[in-house]
Amino acid sequence: MEKLTNKANIRIGTVNGTGSQSSNTIIIKSLFRMGVPVSGKNLFPSNIFGLPTWFQIRANESGYTSFSDEVDIVVAMNKDSISQDVDSLKAGGLFIYNSDLRFDEILLNDEHVHFAVPFKNLVKGVTDSIKLRKLLTNMVYVGVLARITGMDKEVIFSVVEDFFKSKKSVVELNQQAIEVGFKYAEENFNKDFYIQFEKRSPLADTVLIDGNTAGALGAVWGGCGFASWYPITPSSSLMEEFENYANQFLLDEKGKKNFAVVQAEDELSSIGMVIGASWAGARAMTATSGPGMSLMSEFVGLSYFAEVPSVTWDIQRTGPSTGLPTRTQQGDLRIAHTMGHGDGKHPVLLPASPEECFYFGKLALDVAEQMQCFVAVLSDLDIGMNLWMTKDLSSIDLGPIQRGKVLSAEDLKQMESFARYKDVDGDGVPYRTLPGTHDDKAAFFTRGTGHDESSKYTESSEKYEELMLRLKRKEKQSLEVLPKPVEKKSDQNASLGIIAYGSTDQAIDESLSILAQTACFADYLRVRALPFHHEVGVFLAEHDEVIVIDQNRDAQMKDFLVIEYPQFAGKIKSVLSFDGLPVRAKQIAEKISEVL
Amino acid sequence: MAKENAIGLEKTAYKGGKSTLCTGCGHDSITNHIQTAYFQANVNPFDIAKLSGIGCSSKTPAYFMSKSHGFNSLHGRLGPLATGVYSANRDLKLIGISGDGDTASIGFGGFAHLIRRNVPMVYLCYNNGVYGLTKGQFSATAEQEAVLKTGAVNPFQEIDLCAMALQLGCGFVARSFSGDAKQLVPLIQAAIHHNGTAFIDVISPCITFNNHEQSSKSFVAVKDHKVNLQELGVIESQDEIKVDYEEGELQMVDLPDGTQIYLRKLDSRAHNVNDKFAAMRLLENTTQSQELLTGLLYINENNKSLGDKLNTTDTPIRNLDLASIQPSNEKLKNLMKDFS
Known about the structure:
A: alpha/beta, six-stranded mixed beta sheet, 25 strands, B: eight-stranded mixed beta sheet, three-stranded antiparallel beta sheet
């Protein structure tokens, strides 16, 4: 076998609810601290206990860390998934398994290198507590894997220390369990295997984080004062982390909270509370997933028509309906952009990494307040709940907080008159006042019914048309504050263009390198927001063929492009991946070759 | 010169736009009572936020206190809207106007959770047993066997919003009648000073769709069946009024801001407004005897408000300066060590 250094895809199969997450986190963090680029993907069932669950760690020195179904090492701890785990491993791959599982050895594949480990016996030597043994069993495989692949034990121990922080006895117990596994492997598998990890210089200015945590931090550092939510996978951790960090960093001198988080009775209410709080002057957001988006539609229409800022994070999962609640997709592009009945399109932010989740955590609040509109941030389960390497968030310049056009009592005193919906500046964005403003001119009556410039009720056709056309102008105006697409030009003169967005980005570089091996070169444009910036049209114009990659069945992004740029419809092609798994670089490259 | 209240405002400062409801609508009377109550309670209109759902009742915030911000939101969504508004600015005085369709049907969930969270506000439900804006269908507060103008009979049991509010732990529960200024004005006035959700179910007959002979919520039916529990009055903390009364004649209720409510018994049934179970029993009994019980049913000033439950800062969140809502980069830098 060709020697693989710092290049392996490790798949760990366990039983849901047995605490394997700590062990897996310690493995991935250790590799990361050794200076090896990594990503960690959870493949988990919609279940709390008992069903098979997997964690996949892709370590790759070239930096290609997107999801891959070519597995080099398996750690099999679950009897129910043994045959699946065997099948997932490549020929020549390393198969580490729990020999206590008592499965028929005929299931094993002769083309694999086998490592039978008697975990039950090994963990007996670590603790007498039956309850702890279960958890520590998983820690033993950390040691086994570390020894077989040459991972740095000192680094692993330092990660264990940081992971369990102050609890010294817990640290020691876990280190001991790792040591036991390490020793067993040393004594029983005395070979130099072809997959090895080597320590490199640390990955500078980089952290390992999930998108939901990063988004939550973006909101904390973005001045979010109110958050409401209704629990739903895979968005719950965003709100939980927001509350967690706000509790640490947003307290007044008396220890009281400079923010409020309300867990709502449903998503109708969570967005309703956000709109109430925004109207009254707090920066406010909610988070949900597909089913919650459907419920929020009516309030989003109100946000659009009455011009009250609101922000919803949609951590997309696989739809329609309840769908596959623990699988990823980009299926909510359409609803997010066009939510609500009647006319209207909303700005949508499309983060492609935790770093961008952090940045958009604050930007979404800015755009909502500057444009007085609803803003959707479309993340997905892959970014939201998986571990990604990303730029150290503290090195990202969020820029000053933008509150938009809000008039104070002092401002009003300088003014002859105030009309809530008057387009004073000609940019489609009117001025607003907040309740509690002490001035005779401040008050207005917000309504979702037809209204004139002074916010008075009207059924006048002219006034209605005028208002709808101004709102359309405002949609265009939002481009000024929305992030432009990012273009990566091929060093060859490419006539092929690729357009992708969101989490797909993690695989694109690798896909392009695979395509380049067949002398196929492409420029790559990553869309970061809807509506489209001018640059998107230019990209379409400049390429003979453009392939749009969507993680949904209906080619939702492609559809929006065809509607916006009908003149280029003939050269826009679609590549789809909607199986609920993150896209694979090879799969995308193959699909691109097929449509060319 | 017109009379001024303790903060130097005349009653005209509490006026609103012209009503577009049917002539003679009970809702317009309530609009007047609200203006009187806020005038007497010495609340600055600049500090008020008027919130509502959708329906005839929910239109009325446009007809009072034009100097206050108003938000006529979505059908059934007064509860969450108010929760958000309060959370952003706990200094605002919230008044929410809803109807029986808005509260007891489409917004029932939001209503329940608003009370459960104890969002400080005056919550008025204008209850007429029918959907007015869609021309007279039954609402969930219509009594079983109630008859529509069309002759249709209601087969379903009514939802008693006061009993519901009591069960949900509401600390201020009252029922009144749109035509009874003497009772409703002090009730609203007291509700303004209550630290929590104050719920008043106001029977307000629909003059167009539910005022016929067989209706149980017509003006005539209400007047025939109405029982007043107490005579009510409010003494504002700024007022230097003394009430003369004999021992045992009045029940005095102290509100946290120094306001006092006094209650003089009118009905033969003795009722202690601090006794939740008694209020429940009384409601049940009067429903069975087909009496319309009105007055202050229950009050409890010991419930924590939402802001105190959540331990939010005393300064309204919307007034916080940048430094208070955005932590330093140094702190983020330190935190990032957890992710490396």
